[in-house]
Amino acid sequence: MNIRHWAAILITTTAWMGSAAAAQNAPLTAADKRAVVEQLGQTLEANYVFPDKAKTIAATLRRHLDAGDYDAATDRRTLASELTDDLVAASNDLHFSVGVDPEWVADYAARQDPARAAALRETERREEVRKNFGFAGLRYLDGNIAYVDLTHFADPEPGYDAAAAAMRFIENGDAVIYDLRYNNGGYLEMAQLLASQLFRGDKDQELFDYYYNLDGRRVERGQWVLPALPAKRLTGKPVYVLTGSTSFSAAEWFAYTLKKLGRATLVGERTAGGAHPVDRKPVGTDFFVQVPIGQIRDPIDRSDFEGQGVTPDHLVPSADALAVAHRLALAELAKADPAKQADADWLAPELAARPQPTTTALKAIAGRYEGRRIDLVGGKLLYTWRERFRLTLDPLAGDLLAIEGVRDFRFRIVRKGGKVTALERIDRDGTTQTYARLD
């Protein structure tokens, strides 16, 4: 099963803002809102992995509607955002997301047409090619430690050659670090392919066990270590997985399973806690909902981490995780081979944590903003939203702030009369959004 997760869905949803512009401009009546809420409830009850909870969640949405909580939502995008927040709050499941994309809804209905389905697959393939199927960085760190920066887990069918090249690139490393701090998930089959390189191929080893709903029927399956691979196996070599609060779904499963099987050391922050496989379903003619449709279980005690996240072996700020993992890898290699101790000693000062000094300027930025906050902790600015996700801010020139692991936008501090009054998000395309300061 192609199990898409939060960021993998973004392959097709990052365009919905533009494609839905016309629909968002149309008036949204009270009858429209009621129809959306009713259809959304029916879709949840038909597809959510927990049918009993689906009824309760659907009833909660109807209560919000009856209480007038959606009266101020005058356009479709705003309603979708409010429905998403209420779904997450009612379920504590971060996989839920409601969006507006009438073109996708029309395509969903037209997928029975083989030509249309092929065209959609080709569009997704071209988008993945542009992102190199999630393999954002491959390099060797000092000490012959292979490093893999993976932004998401792509469909392994079109992404197989890229994955094979990455696997061959790292096969000569003495240790390997997988960076999943900003990986929001994707296809579990790609996780299976990459994880298989870490185990022997002549011994049965289950990686994932799960079930899901497919067109009204329950499907159960397991994924095992693959017996044949396009690269040498890394059995016996130290493995480290970097995690962060934005590590999600398939990224969490990759880390969780390797930890359970004793095959990797996890370094970073506790992950988001999205363990359930999801699918996207249409709601009416304009909306869609991303809904959890199944449950994955680990191969040891059939547990998962839904709503809890995966706790690393070494809890450190995600911004420091690579340096810490690098130090740990060097130490482990030196322990196995004393001749490598010199490398570890030489590199230790470079990899030591160097916290930024606390300054008056940084203290002035710390505070509460609309829907988010900035804290000054240990000389670093920590940006938090939804009370769950947290990333480090790096001050740049001109009141600009870079966000750890984020390439597509940054923040700017807005000042008036010498005081910080707002936080402005500046996207790469020049669009902006302002969050007023609340304290």
Report on this model:
The protein is α+β, with helices and mostly antiparallel strands and 439 residues long. Helices cover 37% and strands 26% of the residues. It is built from 14 helices and 20 strands. The protein has helices spanning 6-13, 16-19, 21-25, 30-47, 51-66, 76-91, 102-110, 114-130, 156-170, 188-196, 250-260, 321-336, 341-351, 360-365, and strands at residues 97-100, 135-141, 145-150, 175-179, 206-214, 217-224, 239-243, 265-268, 278-283, 287-292, 294-297, 314-315, 367-369, 372-377, 380-385, 389-395, 400-403, 409-416, 419-427, 432-436. The chain has an eight-stranded antiparallel beta sheet with strand order 13-14-15-16-17-18-19-20. The protein has a six-stranded mixed beta sheet with strand order 2-3-4-7-8-12, with helices on both faces. Strands 1-10-9 form a three-stranded antiparallel beta sheet, with helices on both faces. A hairpin with a 2-residue loop joins β14 and β15 (380-385). α4 (30-47) packs antiparallel against α5 (51-66), α5 crosses α6 (76-91) and α12 runs antiparallel to α13 (341-351). The longest helix has 18 residues, at 30-47. Residues 1-23 have low confidence and may be disordered.
